[in-house]
Amino acid sequence: MSAASLLSLPAALLKQTARSAQAYKHRMPLVGNRAYSSDAPSRTRFTYRIAAAAAAKRTSPRQPKLGQDFWTYTSTQRNATPPYLRSTKPQSGEDAFFAATVGGSPHDVAFGLADGVGGWQDQGVDPAEFSHGLCGLMAGTAYLHAEGLEWGGKGKSGRLRPRDLMQTAYEAVIGNPRIVAGGCTASLAVADGEGRIETANLGDSGFLILSPGKITHRSHPQTHAFNTPYQLSKVPPRLQTQHAIFGGATHFSETPQQADVETHQLRHGDITVFATDGVWDNLSAQDALGIITRVMVEGGYWFKSHNFAGAETLLNERMIRSLPTTLGGGSGKKGKEQEQELEVYLPALLATAIMREAKSAGLDRRRNGPFAREVNLHYPQEGWQGGKPDDIAVVVCVAVEDAAVEDAAAAPEVEQQAIKAKL
Fold first, then answer.
1. What CA–CA distance (Å, rounded) separates 367 from 350?
2. Taking every annotated instance into account, which residue ranges of this chain make up the domain PPM-type phosphatase (predicted)?
3. How many other C-beta atoms are found inside a 10 Å radius of the C-beta of residue 373?
4. How far apart are alpha carbons 195 and 267 in whole angstroms?
5. Tell me: domain 3-422, CATH 1.10.645.10, correct?
6. pLDDT value of position 97
7. What is the mean pLDDT of residues 313-334?
8. How many Cβ atoms sit within 10 Å of the Cβ of residue 25?
């Protein structure tokens, strides 16, 4: 069965899973939340520009093509068809991704990815069914979420939270007879109109948040041991019985409640990069920063304050704000002109640049990346050299602050400066 048919579930099922998320939220203790931002939320409005890129393990390096190697999305697209972005198995292998507006709001968006656990192949199970199923259900559930968003603690309800979203989709996968077995890691986020982003990370996929010239935050992997990440699993009764009688490989099975949850405050132009271990096994966080910096500087989105070493990296705010709000046919452009617009869409440039570098590093037998260093640390007798070929999925999100709100917020400061000048 194809991933596309697997994810073409009726709206009634998605609405039912959305209701289960509300019930689950009331009984699930919100533990492990860690707020890293020291900035108080501002009364501004944000929208989001998103792209995903992917490469299956067995795919040879090639020039990225729209709809085959990378995909574009924006929270501001009206009457988008389809209404959300999700992966399909042939293009991204066992890795999956999604992006969706929350309840159709242009200011609220959910996005993330999942990495199918390859060990299930030994049991005759296609790991891609679980990961793509989970992401498809998260996309549909987020889009159908109709309660609106509220960022708050006790007494406030209705806000879609990433761990609840993961739980809803996980329960639907467990209850879906078409997904017989499997497992995956998962990493996702929900961002709102005030630039606040909440993340849920389970396993060794993960994310970075970047501001001009620097990494402001990076997630930490959850593992039982080296190369053994936390993972969601569906173990059928037959395998449970076989394991109880004959022993054999252990199937780790965590729940969404064990995901690390964090909250952060984004600024205008901040970049969030989610990626599976096909990226992080071959590229360090600093490698990713270097790739992002190259694309941003070449495009004029970042620039140096002065022409000397150590000069501050600044954001070209107008260029970020000019990122298109409508893509594809909705932009009014057609044919070659439309294709060219999508090829230079900033989130797509960033996602494909990371994907291509990770792919190249994974195939390079002389380049020791993070995975090679870890193997040589824990198992020096292996003598591992070079990268680690794997499926790759990347999702990039750029936060765009509304110009009118920002200008209004800056007005008192400008007026004060004018008064000082007169004095």
1. 22
2. 79-399
3. 12
4. 7
5. no
6. 98
7. 85
8. 18
